[in-house]
């Protein structure tokens, strides 16, 4: 049963409060001519040693109990608060993980996710010789307003005004500024775009706005009825791991106070989903400063539990500074029509929900928007935006200084190679 659910939708419900998701299957709903390569998405946690081991139910969680108790005594006040939060959510995480380990058919699928559906020659590795464009560097030079991205539309992507038949192989190219400009693919097919001899895949019915934080106000809609019902935010929080690995530039927490979350909301209000690390200092900042500044009322917490290809956790659950899960804080931002009888939340949002997946590249979050749609206020279809996005999804607006990062064509394969 779980296997069939995963194959069809990319989401498999393990119990009433836990889900396993395959981000590749979910992302591939956004594409028609291309698809995300599982071998490039799942670039970690698929080595042969880990895959060969048999998963054992949570025995690592219970090792070293005495050592952990001694360690807790040496924690400072803030760390003790963080540990209490951990102990409160731990039973939900354990129950979710044990449900995964009991789903034997699903575990078989999980072990093969990296090679799933690969045609001959498709299961590729990312070339280390191919350098990626640094969008932050390009956007910081004086020539940035002059840089244009070329969008390659096949003729059948458009509705012809004269009602004529589309030409099968006809390509129309459109050039548009790539920075500080809303770049949209309004067609029903994904398209290939070109920028400085690099190719990017743009999902169907999606758009991106690539800029720094000084330009985000350009996304504020002229009318609040054109605002967003779902706002997902993955800020580049300051953390030691990002600095050490030089993965991406981080920003001090106070910078995020200026995000115009309230102004981006739809008149019916919005569900705001904020990714946070497990640092108690950060949680305290969000609860007491950031959410109040944005006009967001806290509603619930979801948790992303990370596993390897064999179903085991990517790290020990009780390891204080490197726990194998991340938190998604959910809250509501009320709109002007909050009291309207026609625009109401369809379902109360649950707390401590757990979704499990094998992680992709460093800091790449799984696409969880679909798991949130039942709790989004307002009429459907919801208008959705991701702030600090590094990839795109059909039907969404993606904003940040590198929303094309994971749209690089080397992360994709053409569906024509499957035939």
Radius of gyration: 22 Å
Q: Main sheet: which strands, in order across?
A: 1-2-14-12-13-11-10-15-16-9-6
Summarize the amount of helix as a percent range. Answer: 10-25%
Biggest β-sheet, characterized? Answer: 11 strands, mixed
Low-confidence stretches: 48-52, 157-167
Q: Roughly what is the average pLDDT, rounded to an integer?
A: 84
Count helical runs.
12
Quote the distance from N terminus to C terminus.
29 Å
Estimated structural class: alpha/beta
Give the tally of β-strands: 17
Identify the overall geometry.
globular
Q: What is the ordering of alpha helices and beta strands? A: HEEHEHHHHHHEEEEEEEHHEHEEEHEEE
How much β-strand is present in the residues?
15-25%
Protein name: Methyltransferase-like protein 2 isoform X1
Biased composition (Basic residues): 63-72
Organism: Solanum pennellii
Family: Belongs to the MT-A70-like family.
């Amino acid at each position: 049963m779980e296997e069939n659910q995963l194959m069809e939708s990319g989401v498999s419900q393990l119990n009433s409060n836990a889900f396993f998701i395959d981000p590749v299957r979910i992302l591939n709903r956004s594409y028609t001519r291309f698809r995300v390569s599982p071998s490039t998405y799942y670039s970690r946690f698929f080595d042969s040693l880990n895959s060969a081991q048999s998963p054992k139910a949570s025995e690592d969680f219970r090792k070293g109990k005495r050592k952990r108790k001694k360690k807790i005594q040496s924690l400072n006040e803030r760390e003790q608060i963080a540990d209490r939060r951990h102990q409160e959510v731990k039973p939900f995480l354990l129950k979710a993980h044990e449900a995964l380990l009991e789903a034997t058919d699903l575990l078989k699928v999980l072990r093969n996710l990296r090679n799933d559906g690969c045609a001959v020659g498709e299961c590729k590795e990312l070339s280390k010789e191919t350098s990626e464009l640094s969008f932050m560097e390009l956007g910081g030079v004086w020539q940035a307003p002059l840089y244009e991205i070329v969008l390659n539309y096949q003729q059948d992507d458009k509705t012809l005004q004269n009602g004529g038949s589309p030409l099968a192989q006809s390509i129309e190219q459109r050039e548009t500024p790539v920075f500080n400009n809303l770049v949209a693919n309004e067609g029903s097919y994904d398209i290939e775009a070109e920028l400085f001899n690099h190719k990017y895949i743009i999902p169907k019915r999606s758009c991106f706005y690539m800029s720094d934080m000084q330009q985000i106000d350009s996304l504020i809609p002229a009318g609040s009825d054109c605002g967003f019902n779902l706002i997902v935010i993955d800020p580049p929080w300051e953390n030691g791991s990002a600095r050490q690995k030089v993965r991406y530039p981080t920003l001090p927490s106070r910078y995020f106070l200026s995000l115009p979350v309230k102004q981006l909301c739809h008149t019916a209000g919005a569900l705001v989903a904020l990714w946070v690390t497990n640092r108690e200092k950060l949680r305290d900042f969000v609860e007491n400063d950031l959410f109040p500044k944005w006009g967001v009322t806290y509603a619930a917490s979801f948790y992303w539990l990370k596993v390897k290809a064999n179903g085991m956790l990517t790290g020990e659950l009780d390891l204080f500074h490197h726990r194998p899960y991340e938190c998604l804080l959910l809250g509501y931002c009320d709109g002007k029509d909050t009291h309207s009888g026609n625009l109401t939340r369809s379902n109360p949002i649950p707390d401590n929900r757990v979704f499990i997946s094998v992680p992709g590249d460093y800091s790449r979050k799984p696409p969880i928007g679909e798991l949130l749609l039942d709790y989004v206020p307002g009429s459907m279809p919801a208008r959705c935006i991701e702030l600090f996005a590094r990839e795109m999804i059909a039907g969404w607006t993606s904003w940040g200084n590198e929303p094309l990062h994971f749209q690089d064509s080397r992360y994709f394969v053409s569906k024509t190679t499957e035939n």
